[in-house]
């Protein structure tokens, strides 16, 4: 009996629902074991779009794993059952040509599988893209830069950078964040694996996505499109907060920069140095003459956990090193070294550390 005869006679009698459930359980447990504790675990969805993608992924993995096991099992069986033996006559076994059953099976079954996966994918895309926008939604404009993120809340009058704050979304009273995304320079890609799929940021084009985490916490992500030298350090930090904490954050961000520096002469001197240097050409500090838009808004810089779009902890020591020469900490950064002396560096650092 050759392989084609074997294929026409072999039948597998396993209930489809039992096989699917077993495969899904195996895939989920394996993925969770491999990625346990990962902050970017795609198998631990925390928002509606991510859960839809997770379900679709499990379906695709289950189908492809079933195909792999069936084909691999038949191949292994054929290799063992029809292996060469010393008693073989050496003649070629009988060949089968023009079998309609075999040809239909390897044509129709793959077509049905592809159509099923196509329809399932289309349904997920449609549900995600066509989701209605409730009146309580938070609007955020996301702009990708080399190599940092700009976030604007047009209805709230807030502008910040690199750390996105959103309220948690209660299923009984949903308040998802709807993001309108574009790029100021090259192509970027916004991806927080536990919240949603990847969405590209393209110059002169606006793409949209939405996220609705029901649990407060920090969700991490990454620019997923090569955008230049520091693509790998263009990180994403999304802070999902309770409605009360989010409201408090918005009120704090709406305030102008800290102007009372009377108790810190060094910081007051640093403000004067900051305003008379080229810093004002790139950065904004509300309530001052600094109105640059090329770099991140620094109005509340000291309230952020990180600098340089995520990879560096926001401490006075790191901030001083960053101001001195950003390319030492993040090669390829578009911020130039200002070549300040030690006193001016200390003064500007003291000023920026007061901008809560």
Question: Layout of SSEs?
Answer:
Elements: H1 3-9, H2 16-34, H3 48-81, H4 100-129, E1 138-145, E2 148-153, E3 158-161, E4 163-167, E5 177-183, E6 188-191, E7 199-201, E8 207-211, E9 217-223, E10 235-241, H5 243-254, H6 265-276, H7 279-282, E11 306-307, E12 312-313, H8 316-324, H9 326-329, H10 342-352
Parallel strand pairs: 1-5, 4-10
Antiparallel strand pairs: 1-2, 2-3, 5-8, 6-7, 6-9, 9-10, 11-12
Helix pairs in contact: 2-3, 3-4, 6-10, 8-10
Commentary on this structure:
It is a single chain. With 356 residues, this protein is of the alpha+beta class. The chain has three domains: 3-85 and 92-129, Orthogonal Bundle (Helix Hairpins), CATH 1.10.287; 138-240, Immunoglobulin-like (Sandwich), CATH 2.60.40.420; 265-352, Immunoglobulin-like, CATH 2.60.40. It has helices at 3-9, 16-34, 48-81, 100-129, 243-254, 265-276, 279-282, 316-324, 326-329, 342-352, and strands at 138-145, 148-153, 158-161, 163-167, 177-183, 188-191, 199-201, 207-211, 217-223, 235-241, 306-307, 312-313. The strands form three sheets. A five-stranded mixed beta sheet has the order 3-2-1-5-8. Strands 4-10-9-6-7 form a five-stranded mixed beta sheet. The longest helix has 34 residues, at 48-81. The protein starts with a helix and ends with a helix. 26% of the residues are buried. Residues 1-16 have low confidence and may be disordered.
